[in-house]
Structure formats: structure tokens, C-alpha cells
């Protein structure tokens, strides 16, 4: 089976975007000193904090 260059490019691009997103989230956690920066980070943990 042959894999096109465009498919490889799109796959790599998606992987890089995912890595960049995880890096940005980790950088935000480190810089703020908080594990939860927005409710969607941990819905259960956010519910416990708000109650």
C-alpha cells in the first residue's frame, strides 16, 4: 500500500499541533502554580472545589 506525501504531511502536522497544545497547557500550569486553570481541566475536581 502506498501512502501519499500529503497524508504524511497532514499526519505530522496533527501530531505537532497535539504536542504544542500539551506543551502550552503544561507551561500554563507551571507558570500559574495551579493544577486547575479552567473548569474543563478536571470537571470532577472543579466541582469539589466549588462546593
3D architecture notes:
The protein is an all-alpha fold. It has one domain. The protein has helices at 5-32, 43-50. The model has no long low-confidence stretch (mean pLDDT 85).
Note the topology.
Layout: H1 5-32, H2 43-50
Structural class: mainly alpha
Identify the quaternary structure here.
single chain
The DSSP helix count reads: 2
Helix content bin: over 70%
Total strand count, please? 0
Could you give a short account of the major beta sheet? none
| Shape summary | elongated
* CA gyration radius, whole angstroms: 17 Å
Calculate the terminal CA-CA distance, rounded to whole Å.
55 Å
Contiguous low-pLDDT stretches (5 residues minimum) are none
Average pLDDT rating: 85
Total domains: 1
Order of helices and strands: HH
Strand content: under 5%
Give a brief description.
It is built from 2 helices and no strands. With 51 residues, it is mostly helical.
Task: List descriptors.
elongated, single chain, 71% helix, mainly alpha, 2 helices, 51 residues
